[in-house]
Amino acid sequence: MKFKKLLPLITFTSIALSSSAFAANWSSTALHINNGDQKNPFTEQESNTTVYSVQHASGYDYGDNFFFIDYSKDDTDDGYQDADFYGEWYSTVSLSAISGEKIGAGALLDVGLTGGINVAGDAKVMKYLPGVKLSWDVPGFNFFQTLFTAYIDDSEGVAKGGAPIETNSWMLDVAFEYPFNIGSQKFSFKGHAEYIAEREDEFGNDVEAWILAQPILVWDMGHALQMKENTLLLGMELQYWHNKLGTEVTESVPQIHIEWTF
């Protein structure tokens, strides 16, 4: 059932990878490993949790693609993150590229039309996220982007063994990367923060608006070891989640972060 629910994401992922390989101007695929004590938002019990993520980003003449697939495993057999998959995929078309004219002024570099999909395995959740991405020129940053999307539910619901179906909502996400040096050592501060507005589940219960922030501070260990830059990164990720999964539980979890770019 997990595989069936993840099939649309895997299909979109394959399309994104094949199109990127065909005409990519740039491409990056990496394995991320995070470890820390995360909360089960329904019991508030903390469990040591390891999350393995494959993350891909690529750009072509008319836009870009981004996706990740997480595999989460904790040390508590409670039906939450015991061995679960979660994934997101987004594809953006640049209005400047397709129009042949710069769409933007001042610090606004470009406007893109985005389509996204979020899929969760055990919870049998599927969300569609059509919206707009704004790319900004912020001094010193490799990139700084804001994403405004709808948050449209197409989940299977409790009747089919999943999480409750929810009413539709909207999302705001900010993503960034800021590189810097300390002496001869290279570092980067990057990550994202999202706000998803409140909604109701299929039983009429309120699902709280949440804020999820995942800033990451990394040291370029590969560069220090005279490897290729941005190949092997070591650092710390802070996962701050206010109203985790729409509950009234908030967590703030420091996690060891390892990143290997293929």
Structural write-up:
The protein has 262 residues and is mainly β. It is 12% helix and 58% strand. It has helices spanning 2-23, 95-99, 221-224; strands at 24-39, 46-60, 63-74, 84-94, 108-120, 125-128, 131-136, 143-153, 169-182, 185-196, 199-200, 206-207, 210-220, 232-242, 251-261. Strands 1, 2, 3, 4, 5, 6, 7, 8, 9, 10, 13, 14 and 15 form a 13-stranded antiparallel β-sheet that branches. The chain has a two-stranded antiparallel sheet with strand order 11-12. The protein is globular and about 50 Å long.
Task: Present the secondary structure layout.
Blueprint lengths: L1 H22 E16 L6 E15 L2 E12 L9 E11 H5 L8 E13 L4 E4 L2 E6 L6 E11 L15 E14 L2 E12 L2 E2 L5 E2 L2 E11 H4 L7 E11 L8 E11 L1
Antiparallel strand pairs: 1-2, 1-15, 2-3, 3-4, 4-5, 5-6, 5-7, 6-8, 7-8, 8-9, 9-10, 10-13, 11-12, 13-14, 14-15
